[in-house]
Amino acid sequence: DGGITQSPKYLFRKEGQNVTLSCEQNLNHDAMYWYRQDPGQGLRLIYYSQIVNDFQKGDIAEGYSVSREKKESFPLTVTSAQKNPTAFYLCASSRQTDIGNTIYFGEGSWLTVV
Amino acid sequence: GENVEQHPSTLSVQEGDSAVIKCTYSDSASNYFPWYKQELGKGPQLIIDIRSNVGEKKDQRIAVTLNKTAKHFSLHITETQPEDSAVYFCAASRNYGQNFVFGPGTRLSVLP
């Protein structure tokens, strides 16, 4: 079954700790993205990667880091430098269709700082 | 850069009625406009999309209309059902899918 798998679904972090959210896709999509969603808010882009071994900062990259060593994987690390990390994190990937470059999302990961 | 506004922020309709959500965008170079439905605690799912050389697209009870001159596009849901209750996001992008900008979302409630 093709799709985007995020893990863990729920994660608790102590202040001062780094945590890594996993994102794996088996859709053979070239581009992958990380978005942050706060309660009742829209989606804000953290990082994106158009190709393996390359990634770009989005609108709110401070306090986050990513890697893209494999086409299928795009992990996000939330570092201790991120002052307000409690949020819902969404990974996405995209493919070119006849209408445009369509984004598909994973099921999300809830991160709570305790 | 692109800015996408979305209205209303919340919408309640009676089951069977129609619902309309409107988005406006600022960048005249935007040419691809998808709509997503997000259920509680889940990731957004693409429900319909349109590109700038088309004025309207339908898929069963869902339709999207685009007015390039006025720089707005709308989602129309007819014969609403309780399972249509969710948050709906619009988005705009240039180059048919680069650098998506999302609207803030509309919470739709369909009352039985």
Describe what you observe in this structure.
The complex is a heterodimer of chains A (114) and B (112). With 114 residues, chain A is an all-beta fold. In chain A, 0% of the residues lie in helices and 54% in strands. Chain A is built from no helices and 11 strands. In chain A, strands 2, 4, 5, 6, 9, 10 and 11 form a 7-stranded mixed beta sheet that branches. A 4-stranded antiparallel beta sheet of chain A has the order 1-3-8-7, with no helix packed on it. Chain A is globular and about 45 Å long. The model of chain A has no long low-confidence stretch (mean pLDDT 91). Chain B has 112 residues and is mostly beta strands. Chain B is built from no helices and 11 strands. In chain B, the strands form 2 sheets. In chain B, strands 2, 4, 5, 9, 10 and 11 form a 6-stranded mixed beta sheet that branches. In chain B, strand 4 and strand 5 form a beta hairpin. The N and C termini of chain B lie far apart (41 Å). Classes of the chains: A mainly beta (114), B mainly beta (112). At the A-B interface, strand 9 and strand 10 of A face strand 4, strand 5, strand 9 and strand 10 of B.
